[in-house]
UniProtKB/TrEMBL annotation:
Gene3D superfamilies named among the record's database cross-references: 3.40.190.290, Winged helix-like DNA-binding domain superfamily/Winged helix DNA-binding domain (1.10.10.10)
Signal sequence bounds: none
PANTHER family attached to this UniProt entry: HTH-TYPE TRANSCRIPTIONAL REGULATOR, TRANSCRIPTIONAL REGULATOR, LYSR FAMILY
Keywords: DNA-binding, Transcription, Transcription regulation
Record domain HTH lysR-type: where: 1-59
Name the UniProt record assigns to this protein: Transcriptional regulator, LysR family
Species assigned in the record: Chondromyces apiculatus DSM 436
Pfam families membership: HTH_1 (PF00126), LysR_substrate (PF03466)
C-alpha cells in the first residue's frame, strides 16, 4: 500500500491548483511535491495530472483517484481522532469486583429469627472457600419475607432472601442480585410422617418428587 502522505500531497496539489501554491501551504519544496506525484503516477501506471505551462488539471483517472483519496484521508483523520479521544475522555466499561466484606458498608435488611444474630454467613456457591461472616447493623428487622422484599424494592437496603421469593422481582428488573456467586444460607425442609414402616407407595412417590423437584423451584 502506498504511503498515505502521497495521497495527501496529491489532494493538496489539486485543492491548491498547482505545485507552487501547495508547496507554499505545506512548506514543502515544489520539486519535492512534483517528484512524489511522479512516483505515485509511475507506481499506479497512469497519469493523474495534466501539466503544461498554460494548463493544470486532473485526468479522468486523476479525478477518480482524487475522490477516493479524499475519503481515505477523511477516514484516517477520524480514526486518529477517535483514538485520541479515548485517551482524553472517559469511555468504555469499567468492571469493579465487590467482595462479601463490602456488604457491611451498605444499608441492610435482615430476616429476624429467634436466637439468630444479625449476620450474614456467606459461602461461595461453586468454589470451596471458608465461610465469610458479615456483621450487620440492619435498617429493618422483620420476619416477613415479602415485606423485606418490598422494602428492598423501595431501596431501603440489601436483603438476603430465598431465590423463589425474589425471582420475579429480579427478572422484572425491580431487584438486582448482589454477589450472585455467593449463598447467604441454606434451608432445610422436613417431611413428617407418622411411621416409616408400611409407607404407602403414593406417599413415597410424593416425597421422592419433592426431593427431586423442590430444589429446582427455590433456586434463582
Amino acid at each position: 500500500m502506498r504511503d498515505l502522505n502521497d495521497f495527501y500531497f496529491f489532494v493538496q496539489v489539486v485543492d491548491r491548483g498547482g505545485f507552487t501554491a501547495a508547496g507554499r501551504t505545506l512548506r514543502v519544496p515544489k520539486s519535492t511535491l512534483s517528484h512524489r506525484i511522479q512516483q505515485l503516477e509511475s507506481e499506479l501506471g497512469v497519469r493523474l495530472l495534466n501539466r503544461t505551462s498554460r494548463r493544470f488539471g486532473m485526468t479522468d483517472a486523476g479525478e477518480d483517484f482524487y475522490r477516493h483519496a479524499v475519503v481515505m484521508l477523511r477516514e484516517a483523520e477520524l480514526a486518529e481522532t477517535t483514538i485520541r479521544n479515548r485517551l482524553t475522555e472517559p469511555t468504555g466499561t469499567v468492571r469493579c469486583t465487590k467482595s462479601p466484606q463490602d456488604l457491611q458498608n451498605h444499608p441492610s435488611l435482615f430476616m429476624m429469627r429467634a436466637g439468630v444474630e444479625p449476620v450474614w454467613r456467606l459461602r461461595h456457591a461453586r468454589q470451596k472457600r471458608d465461610e465469610i461472616v458479615v456483621p450487620l447493623t440492619p435498617r429493618l428487622l422483620s420476619d416477613d419475607m415479602v415485606g423485606l422484599q418490598q422494602a428492598a424494592i423501595k431501596g431501603l437496603g440489601i436483603v438476603a432472601l430465598p431465590g423463589y421469593i425474589c425471582r420475579s422481582a429480579v427478572r422484572s428488573g425491580h431487584l438486582e442480585r448482589v454477589l450472585p456467586g455467593w449463598i447467604a444460607g441454606d434451608s432445610t425442609l422436613t417431611a413428617l410422617i407418622p411411621y416409616r414402616q408400611g409407607l404407602l407407595p403414593s406417599v413415597r412417590a410424593f416425597l421422592d418428587h419433592l426431593a427431586a423437584e423442590l430444589p429446582k423451584t427455590v433456586l434463582m
